[in-house]
Design a protein that fits this description.
The complex is a heterodimer of chains A (about 110) and B (about 120). Chain A is mainly β. Chain A has no helices and eleven strands. In chain A, the strands form two sheets. In chain A, strands 2, 4, 5, 6, 9, 10 and 11 form a seven-stranded mixed beta sheet that branches. Chain B is globular. Chain B is mostly beta strands. Classes of the chains: A mainly beta (about 110), B mainly beta (about 120).
């Protein structure tokens, strides 16, 4: 059983909708990450949180809004998305921000119509 | 510039045979780490193996080994005795030893299909 869970696994939303992706890690880690995986493109880092503080925002549009209420939970709030935002969104965690091993969740497959 | 290059978009391998997945990287740092991840159709990324730039021995983890050639900046993954469950996408990644030390740069991936 994976130590990082993500819900929902699949999401279809219209461009005017507001939805949230949830990530939870059960590993006692202090750093969490959001990645975007589009077809035929390398994995892109979106956000990094370390001890609940955002330490990286990789030039992500403001229609993506992360939230980290505690070290075990990470959210990605979505609003007024575009069809090109359709992708697999992966959450990961690591012991701390310098740990070399990141543990990934199963991802949320997002389709924007 | 692309930091990680995986030139093989897809590969077929016969069950029980070995397969080598290519990965070359680009960095000016002396300290860096190289990773391989497996992504089955279920979507999650599974960590396989890690090689530090100062490690003298090639990393091995069970059936996975990393052929690290520092001068050529290559970090190929070798999967021995392939199994049907090895069919997946494989990603090479690098973490460079500067201040953004939590950032992993990923390659485009190689799809491996194991045939019975």
């Amino acid at each position: 059983e994976t130590g990082v869970t993500q819900t929902p696994r699949h999401l279809v939303m219209g461009m005017t909708n507001k939805k949230s992706l949830k990530c939870e890690q059960h590993l006692g880690h202090n750093a969490m990450y959001w990645y975007k995986q589009s077809a035929k493109k390398p994995l892109e880092l979106m956000f990094v949180y370390s001890l609940e503080e955002r330490v990286e925002n990789n030039s992500v549009p403001s229609r993506f809004s992360p939230e980290c209420p505690n070290s075990s939970h990470l959210f990605l709030h979505l609003h007024t998305l575009q069809p090109e935002d359709s992708a697999l969104y992966l959450c990961a965690s690591s012991r701390n921000r310098v740990s070399y091993e990141q543990y990934f969740g199963p991802g949320t497959r997002l389709t924007v119509t | 510039a692309q930091k990680i290059t995986q030139t093989q978009p897809g590969m077929f391998v016969q069950e029980k045979e070995a397969v080598t997945l290519d990965c070359t990287y680009d960095t000016s740092d002396q300290s860096y780490g190289l990773f391989w991840y497996k992504q089955p159709s279920s979507g999650e990324m599974i960590f396989l193996i890690y090689q530090g730039s100062y490690d003298e021995q090639n990393a091995t983890e069970g059936r996975y080994s990393l052929n690290f050639q520092k001068a050529r900046k290559s970090a190929n993954l070798v999967i021995s005795a392939s199994q049907l469950g090895d069919s997946a996408m494989y990603f090479c990644a690098m973490r460079e030893g500067h201040s953004n030390d939590y950032k992993l740069s990923f390659g485009a991936g190689t799809t491996v299909t194991v045939r019975a």
